[in-house]
Design brief:
This protein has no helices and 25 strands. It has a domain at about 1-105. By secondary structure, the chain is an all-beta fold. The relative contact order is 0.13. Strands 6-1-7-8-9 form a five-stranded mixed sheet, with no helix packed on it.
């Protein structure tokens, strides 16, 4: 997309958009603008979720989308992609970061639609949570076809910056409720070929999910988490398979939903280290972690 504008993508049906019931707002699912100057994120309070944008240091925060929006993703400088909830969960709207100019951009029969970098395709989820399929279609919903999941579960999809691969969370189907089969991150081409696991996280560590592509497409930032245990952000190098855990801790903190800065030197993520979920930033080596919302 050869444009000097920036666009944010906001997916509303992800579980990450669901906040705890708190009297104070919590902040989730950050996304960094292509020039690194702005952050978009969701604010949740009770059952209400809204979309906000702030400077990358947290200053000048302002609400952009009303109740029912969440999980922002940038595409161009001055627009947001907003997905509806409930009956509108498969619809995509573009809206300016000044909050005006809303227009329809895509409609599919599914959830969490995410436009490709060129805007000519949309990836989305279809089916029940226990057997979700990852689907591809044109923005008008035509030519829809499954590329992953269905028997197993596929979600948390993310396009590589060049649009040639999609990373997603893969969940192996099991009928044993006591089974500890961890989730893994896979990559697959938009035509469904080349599906492969890029993580081998053990059950002792947790499950790998919510992949985010580095700007050069050579690394993935992921979260590794398990119910009742700490969650960490990890980086997976796709060229040599090396992985590293960032800002390791044994406290019951949840570091989740990473997003890259465009220079590849920092990550934004959500964490409850301050006592409630807020947006944090750290270097890619795990140093200098600090929260930028809720201060």
């Amino acid at each position: 997309m050869k444009s000097c504008n920036l666009t944010v993508l906001i997916a509303l049906s992800s579980p990450l958009a669901l906040a705890g019931q708190s009297t104070l707002p919590e902040h989730h699912a950050p996304s960094v603008s292509p020039d690194g100057k702005l952050l978009a994120y969701t604010e949740s309070q009770g059952n209400t979720t809204t979309v906000w944008v702030a400077n990358s240091d947290g200053s000048n925060a302002r609400q952009l989308a009303s109740a029912g929006a969440g999980r922002p993703r940038w595409v161009t400088n001055d627009q947001l992609q907003v997905n509806g909830l409930d009956a509108d969960s498969g619809r995509v709207f573009l809206i300016g970061i000044d909050g005006i100019g809303r227009r329809a951009a895509a409609a599919v029969i599914g959830r969490a639609p995410l436009l490709s970098p060129r805007g000519n395709l949309v990836a989305y989820m279809s089916g029940p949570w226990t057997s979700t399929a990852l689907m591809i279609a044109k923005p008008d919903g035509s030519a829809a076809h499954k590329i992953a999941g269905g028997n197993a579960t596929a979600w948390n999809h993310a396009w590589r910056p060049d649009g040639k691969l999609i990373a997603y969370t893969y969940g192996e189907a099991t009928k044993d409720p006591s089974s500890r089969v961890p989730l893994q991150v896979h990559v697959v081409a938009p035509d469904g070929t080349g599906d492969r696991a890029v993580t081998q996280v053990t059950a002792d560590e947790g499950s790998a999910q919510t992949p985010a592509w580095s700007p050069d497409g050579k690394q993935l930032a992921i979260q590794v988490s398990a119910r009742g245990r700490p969650a960490h952000v990890w980086i997976v190098d796709l060229t040599d398979g090396q992985v590293r855990k960032l800002n390791a801790h044994t406290e019951p903190y949840l570091d989740e939903a990473p997003a890259w800065f465009p220079d590849g030197k920092q990550l934004a993520y959500q964490s409850n280290r301050s006592g409630r979920m807020e947006v944090w930033v750290m270097n890619v080596d795990g140093t200098n972690a600090h929260h930028i919302t809720g201060r």
